[in-house]
Amino acid sequence: MDGPLGVQLDLERLCPVLSDVPIEVTRPLYQLLSSERVHHRKLRAHLAERERHLAYMNSGMREIDAMPGVEFERYIAARYRADGWTVRHTPASGDYGVDLIATKDGELDLAIQCKRQAKPVGVSAIQQVVAGGMHYGCARTMVTSNQEFTPAARNLAATHNCQLIGRAELLETIWIDSPGTDG
């Protein structure tokens, strides 16, 4: 079965790999594999999601630049989840300029707009995420992009304390601190 980003998922080859893992960890997995077909489909979906997550974590700028906008949002969400954040996607339309809402330690905290595009990001992205962040009750806002930001966008972001993650920072490990710290 081909998964997202062309990752091949082969459950028959997965079981022998799991033989070196302690039985306490693998027992639930084996039970799912041997139970009814519905569980098998759920396991496939779960494993495909893990494979997609791993592929995102290994993406370089060339892969990121080739991603459609929705996939770029999933990439950003995967990066936050890897750092312990809970992330939810807003509706595709009527999102008030916010693509993702990231929560850590139980706080509704960070409104994120994702911009995967071919030119520098302008002020409208900052205006949208700041307004949308207020609508969703978020304490902080951020715009992430595979490109850099115009000088006017940087000025407006500074005025509203909106964090900008551009091309130079995109592949760094940590973008923002936990809630309650200066990020």
UniProtKB/TrEMBL annotation:
Source species of the chain: Mycolicibacterium aromaticivorans JS19b1 = JCM 16368
Biological process according to GO: DNA restriction-modification system
UniProt-listed Pfam families: Mrr_cat
Name assigned to this protein: Restriction endonuclease type IV Mrr domain-containing protein
Residues of the Restriction endonuclease type IV Mrr domain: 64-173
Molecular functions per Gene Ontology: DNA binding; restriction endodeoxyribonuclease activity
Organism classification: Bacteria, Bacillati, Actinomycetota, Actinomycetes, Mycobacteriales
Signal peptide: none
